[in-house]
Amino acid sequence: MTSGHRITRHDLSEGGGRITSALSQNAAAGPLRSETTVGLALRVGQRWLRARDGKPATAGNTAGGALIDMIGVPFDGMGRARGQAGAPAALRAAGLQAVFGPDVIMEPDLVLPGPVAQRAAGSGLLNERALLQMVDALHRRVRSSLAAGRFPFVYGADCSVLLAAVPALRDVAGRAGLVFVDGHEDATPMDLSTSGEAANMEIALLLGLTGERAPQPLRERLPALTPDAIAMLGPRDHLFRQAANVPTVAGRVWLRSADEVSADPAGYARLAVEHAAAHGSRWWLHIDLDVLARSEFAACGAPGEVMLAGGLTWQQLAELGVAALHSGGCAGWSLSIYNPDLDPDHGAARSIVEFVARIAPSAARQHPPLR
Question: In this structure, what CATH number is given to the domain that contains residue 269?
Fold first, then answer.
């Protein structure tokens, strides 16, 4: 896509064949569950047909909705040459940009410096230079998108994108809420971090529970959340935290574990939105795909990394996402942690696209947009 190009009916009518071709090429690249192929093809095809007939993807939404602003973030918090930085391109290759239909603005990914897999002196943050530039650039993109009345969809990278997205929402809306769907609490204090990854501590930074050692560009935007404005769904990292001597934030914020959420994903999603919306002017949805069970999704982390036990299924996560967005008031959405290096047959990428396709119509219906 060229810079600032909006996907139009002409693009989609020409692109219908490309979508089918892309799916066929992906299937040839490795095994693909037939239900995923059929589901994605049907959904993309339905949107294409609506666009061909002059109806947008939000047809039937009489209240209107916000234009989707897709923002790719090619950043790897561990400082790898590719890793999560390859996620935006890999997801687009799997068909991501088609699932929102015509109501999309697609601009180039953020441009970031090369990674450095070292911890910075002073802060101890890993890959600090790229992290700071990513946060600054993404903050500007998300803030501009929100101010223009659009719905930003941030994809790629890791949970450190929240260090940009949540302050941007706070700056535009006055007060931000956050529905945080993740297998980890991500509230490690900076002085207890053994890795220096910002994605292990972004919640603590956003809440002001840590940050004395943070670089000034981060400190000047923090804190950006109050404890009563965040709702956590899906953590199951108690063994990880115990090993690192990191206390839980369950007593400070609204939190429901993976075991609880799996029993009623939609119900807990609605409760989470109710909580976050009661304390924030508008709320942000963040989904870290490590909330899924490893049997459902293994293309995250690093080779050989010990994964968390338990987790949600794709079906449960879809029910959660649809229910949360149907509750209304969501200002933007981030989806993170996919590592295409761990997905040689592209099967995980296709599953992600299918998941996004299931809840994209709900994202497009968020109304009224922020202005």
Answer: 3.40.800.10
Q: Per the structure, how many domains does the chain have? A: 1
In a domain, 246, yes or no: yes
**Phi first, then psi: what are they for 106, rounded to 5°?**
-120, 115
Cβ(299)–Cβ(354) under 8 Å?
no
Q: What is the domain extent for residue 239?
A: 65-364
Whole-angstrom distance, CA of residue 245 vs CA of residue 240? 9
* Amino acid identity, position 273: V
Q: Edge to edge, what strands does the sheet with 5-6 contain?
A: 5-6, 104-106, 68-72, 151-155, 330-336, 282-288, 176-181, 230-233, 254-256
Q: How far apart are the first and last CA of the chain?
A: 26
pLDDT in 10s for each residue of the chain, 371 residues: 333 433 333 333 333 333 333 333 333 333 334 344 434 433 443 443 343 333 334 333 334 567 999 999 999 999 998 999 999 999 999 999 999 888 799 999 999 999 999 999 999 999 999 999 999 999 999 999 999 999 999 999 999 999 999 999 999 999 999 999 999 999 999 999 999 999 999 999 999 999 999 999 999 999 999 999 999 999 999 998 998 899 999 999 999 999 999 999 999 999 999 999 998 779 999 999 999 999 999 999 876 677 889 999 999 999 999 999 999 999 999 999 999 999 999 999 999 999 999 999 888 887 666 76
201 falls within a domain: yes
Q: Is residue 40 part of a domain?
A: no
Report in angstroms the alpha-carbon separations of 353 from 317, 338, 340: 13, 12, 13
Does any domain span residue 182? yes
Which residues does 364 contact at the CB level (< 8 Å), separation at least 6? 57, 58, 61, 65, 66, 68, 100, 101, 103, 151
